[in-house]
Amino acid sequence: MLDEESERCIILLLGVKDKPISSMERLQKEMFIASRTISKISEIFDFEKHHHGPYSQTLQEITKNPPHLVNMYKIQQDGSISITASGKDYFNKIINQYKGNVKFASLLQVLKLTRNVYDKLEQDELSFLIYMTYPDYADTSNIYHKVMNDEKNRDRLANLLLSKRLITKERYNELR
């Protein structure tokens, strides 16, 4: 049985930025990235290897059919996931409830950083960065070979990340 905590994680990730997350696949990847820093998120969403990289069945299910916090976020016709007005109210209620809590402030910082950095990436750039950082999640990927096996494509993606100032020159050299 899923509890409200998993749905709150989605609301928090959506609420830290006034912009929808463009797709379910991106939501999966951004929550995965956040889970690498915040152990509580990795406990809630058990990520496994999948055709498009890290995937959590729990995250997929509760995003499509939230059992507790209904009408707080929705999947738009274009596939993007957005927080609703009632979701934004709930987000603000959570913020006020945990005001001054150091762990909660840290969680929010990680979620904001995740959204601010990874929302800027095209899908190939995001996949490339995840596969280079977490190669175990590439085993069953349908897109791994497209992203990783073409040397020109790897160079192009590394150059894009460097030009966007999302990686250092040192990390650039590692990725190529």
Please tell me about this protein's structure.
The chain is mainly alpha-helical and 176 residues long. It has 10 helices and 2 strands, in the order H-H-H-H-E-E-H-H-H-H-H-H. The protein is globular and about 50 Å long. The termini are far apart.
Integer average pLDDT: 90
Q: Main sheet: which strands, in order across?
A: 1-2
The helix-strand sequence is: HHHHEEHHHHHH
Spatial extent as radius of gyration: 17 Å
Low-confidence stretches: none
Strand composition percent: under 5%
Shape: globular
- Pairing-aware structural class of the strands and helices? mainly alpha
Amino-to-carboxy terminus distance: 44 Å
Major beta sheet summary: 2 strands, antiparallel
Measured as a percent range, the helix fraction is 55-70%
Number of strands: 2
- State the helix count: 10
Jot down its keywords.
single chain; 176 residues; mainly alpha; two-stranded antiparallel ribbon; 2 strands; 59% helix; globular
Layout of strands and helices, then pairs:
Layout (H helix, E strand, L loop, with lengths): L3 H12 L8 H12 L3 H6 L12 H8 L8 E3 L5 E3 L1 H13 L4 H17 L4 H11 L10 H5 L2 H13 L5 H7 L1
Helix pairs in contact: 1-5, 2-6, 9-10
At a glance:
It is built from ten helices and two strands, in the order H-H-H-H-E-E-H-H-H-H-H-H. The protein has 176 residues and is mostly helical. The chain has a two-stranded antiparallel ribbon.
